[in-house]
Amino acid sequence: MTTQAYRIDDQAIRSLANNVVAAPVLSTEKRSNLVAEVKKLILEKNAVLVAHYYTSSDMQMLAEESGGYVSDSLDMARFGNSHSASTIVVAGVKFMGETAKILNPEKTVLMPSLDAECSLDLSCPVDAFSDFCDQHPERTVVVYANTSAQVKARADWVVTSSIAVNVIKHLHQRGEKIIWGPDRYLGDYIQKQTNADMLLWQGSCIVHDEFKAKGIARLRQKYPDAAVLVHPESPREVIMQADVVGSTTALINAVSKMDNKTFIVATDNGIFYKMRQLAGNKRFIEAPTNGIGATCNSCAHCPWMEMNGLEALAETLKTGCNEITVDEKIRIKALRSVQRMIDFNPS
């Protein structure tokens, strides 16, 4: 099947990432006070906190202990959509807040920071992507959840990594040809799994793009009994090293189901919080990013996720700042593709 590409120059995106200011490290006393304050504010504001697996352990712990939820972007959207709280606080990156607002226009959606971007979202500007789609009007447009509300409004389907292969397989079986965006590695993986005819936008995640296959091979030699877990946003050579390829939820489930005592993990290291909860007796090793050709020593964490700090979270709840808004015309268009993601049943 034909796979074509649309080129992206991501140097500007990497430059932005290098200049992100992370949430400050807090003293034990200040951290404890903020945790108590946030829990109190969540109750007072009739709010619920939903946090992504890649946020800090504090953010994930708070979501769990306050009656909120920690998960991947698909289940975060589902939970927020079904919860009765009048305010949803999304700890993650901006597209996650927008997705919550698309599904819940009647609710207030807040984030610790509106500057928490995603390299995949940034790599897919709506005007350029729309032009690309317009050149191929016969194709069904499927976009990854890591995109803006405007791009979702242009799409026919939105998917997460947990359902992407099944959705593309479903569309391929119906004879549909696909435009896929924005992640080129996930798109390539899906195409190999489904044999679908896909045109690939050439975005990438700055975290997963840095994992190195040679470094993982060397770790395998050092830990021959380790299992390698890889998120499909990673390069093909890294995916080929994997014992398990899957979404964040699939990788987390693997550590409790598999007998291995050691895991080499090629995804954002924020996932270790949940992995250690489920399998505290096992060892988790970050897949290397500092091999030949890498641009940093340790890239296994999204800098924009690191903006989700306790001080910013408390301020957001106190003042209502950092509210997510989506133009209603865009929201209505985006809802169609997002709702297909929510409703999709692979069976």
TrEMBL record:
Its EC number is 2.5.1.72. The keyword Iron-sulfur applies. Its cofactor is [4Fe-4S] cluster. Gene3D superfamilies: NadA-like (3.40.50.10800). It holds the Pfam family NadA. SUPFAM superfamilies: NadA-like. GO terms for cellular component: cytosol. GO terms for molecular function: 4 iron, 4 sulfur cluster binding; metal ion binding; quinolinate synthetase A activity. Keywords: 4Fe-4S, Cytoplasm, Iron, Iron-sulfur, Metal-binding, Pyridine nucleotide biosynthesis, Transferase. InterPro entries: NadA, NadA_sf. Pathway: Cofactor biosynthesis; NAD(+) biosynthesis; quinolinate from iminoaspartate: step 1/1. GO terms for biological process: 'de novo' NAD+ biosynthetic process from L-aspartate. The keyword Iron applies. PANTHER family: QUINOLINATE SYNTHASE, CHLOROPLASTIC, QUINOLINATE SYNTHETASE A. This is quinolinate synthase. It comes from hydrothermal vent metagenome.
